[in-house]
Amino acid sequence: MELLHQSKYISISFLPQGRIIKAVWTTATQEMEDADFQESIQHIWQNVRNKKPVGFLGDTRLFFFVVSIHLQTWYGENIGDTFGTGTNKIAMLVTSEFIAQVSIEQTIEEDKSAVKTRYFDEEEKALTWLSL
Prior knowledge:
The chain is α/β, with parallel strands linked by helices and 132 residues long. It has a single domain, classed as 2-Layer Sandwich (Transcription Regulator spoIIAA). The chain has 4 helices and 6 strands. It has a 6-stranded mixed sheet with strand order 1-2-3-4-5-6, sandwiched between helices. Strand 1 and strand 2 form a beta hairpin. The longest helix is centred in the first third of the chain and has 18 residues. The two termini are 19 Å apart.
């Protein structure tokens, strides 16, 4: 595993064996501001564009930031061609925080590319699905 970016909110790694980018959100997201969220997402996009993974694993089990409608729209308007240029699957490990989870799903829905997205509660199942 190659560490690509680390902050107090997120850790982004590349798993070369499956050509997967893994982004793990931390509990510090409970004190995150909108600009912190945007910066973290931009780090994800930059690494997806650079590494061109076949799959993306987003671990949101410790994600406590509620993504506002404004940020969901920003996400949809700025994602561009990030996913869908070789990245054909997105697996999301879900949080138990209901409101945060709903906002995550609504944000992901802003991606209009043909990327398949599934939600999981176990990392092993998510990685298996990404590697199929």
